[in-house]
Amino acid sequence: MRTITYEEIKNTVAALCVESCNHLGEDVLQKLKSSVHTEKSPVGVDILKQLVKNALIAAADEIPICQDCGLAVVFAEVGQEVHIEGSFTEAVNDGVIQGYAEGYLRKSTCTALTRENYGNNAPAILHTKLVPGENIKLTVAPKGGGAENMSVLKMFPPAAGRDGIIDFVVDTVGQAGPNPCPPIILGIGIGGNFEMAPLLAKEALLLEIEEKNGDPTFAAMEEEILKRCNQLGIGPGGLGGSTTVLAVHIKDAPCHIASLPCAVNINCHAARHKTKVI
After folding, report:
1. Which residues of 10-43 are buried (b: 16+ CB within 10 A; e: fewer)?
2. Which among 178, 134, 176 has a CA at the least distance from the CA of 265?
3. Fewer CB in 10 Å around end: N or C, the chain?
4. Nearest Cα residue to 123 out of 99, 89, 84
C-alpha cells in the first residue's frame, strides 16, 4: 500500500491546469502545421498559420492559448493499492483553485441560473476510475464553452445504424458552423446509455490526434466522417476552406438492445489536455 498525500495531488493538478492551458499538445500543433499545406483556401491557410503562431507564442511566454480557459475537467485513474492522505476530491478542487490563480487563467465557473461567478473555477468536473496498481494518473482537460455548447447527444433507434450515425455527426458539424472555433476535433461516443455515451465522446478527445481506431468498422466511419465534414466548406475560423475537422475519434461500448446512443463532443483547435502519473 502506497500513500499519496493531499498536497501532492493538489500541486499536480495545479501544475497540469497551467500547462494544459498554455501548451498545445505537440500532436495537435503538428497537425495544424501540416494542414497549412493541404488547405485549399488562401484565407484558411492564413488562419492556420496564425493558429500555429498563437500556440508557439503561448508556450514561449507561458500565457493561455485562448482567453477561455474552460471548466476544469479532470480524469483520474486511481490505483487500488493507493492510500490517499486526506480528501481526494478536495485535493483536486484545491489544485484547480491554485492552478487557475497562479496561472492567471480565466475563471468561468458560475451558478447555473443566477450566473454568479464562483471566482476560482472550482469545483472540477471529476471522473474517477479504480484501476490496479499503486499510482494515480491525472489528466486535466480544460474545456471551453464555445465548442462544448455545440456538442450533442441523440438516442437513436437501433435501425438507424452506421449511416444514421454518420449523417447525424456530419449534420451536427454543419449546424455548429463557426461557433466551436474550427478546425475542430470530434470525439464520438457510441453505445452505453444516456450518461455513458457523452463520457465516451469526451474520453475520445484525449486520444492522440493521428491515432486510428483498432476496429475496421469504426476506423472506416472515422474516415468517412472526416471526409464529409471537410467537404462542408466551413474551414478554419469558419471563413471557408477544406480544413474544418482535424481528426475524428470514436469510442464505443455495449448498449441495450432497444437503443443506440450517440454523443458528439466537439473540441476547438485549442485541444487542451495534459497528463501526469504520481
Report:
1. bbbbbbbbbbbbbbbbebbbebbeebbeebebee
2. 176
3. N
4. 89
With a CB cutoff of 8 Å and minimum separation 6, the contacts of 248 are 169, 185, 186, 188, 222, 223, 225, 226, 229
Residue 118 phi, psi (nearest 5):
-70, -25
Considering only CA atoms, which of 21, 15, 6, 143 is closest in space to residue 72?
143
The amino acid at residue 159 is A
Q: What is the C-alpha separation between 151 and 173, in angstroms, rounded?
A: 9
Q: H or E stretch including 186?
A: strand 184-192
For the chain, the residue count is 278
How far is it, in rounded angstroms, from Cα 169 to Cα 182?
Answer: 15
Q: Average pLDDT of each block of 10 consecutive residues along the chain (278 residues)?
A: 96 98 98 97 98 98 97 98 97 98 97 97 98 98 96 98 97 98 98 98 97 97 98 97 98 98 97 97
Query: Which residue's C-alpha cell is 498525500?
Result: 5
CA 275/CA 201 separation, integer angstroms: 18
pTM of the model: 0.95
Say how far apart CA 223 and CA 79 lie, in whole Å: 35
Pairing of strands 245-255, 184-192: parallel
Q: 174 burial class (0-12, 13-18, 19+ CB within 10 angstroms)?
A: middle
Q: d(Cα 148, Cα 146) in Å, to the nearest integer? A: 6
- At 137, which helix (H) or strand (E)? strand 136-140
Q: Are strands 73-79 and 184-192 parallel, antiparallel or unpaired?
A: unpaired
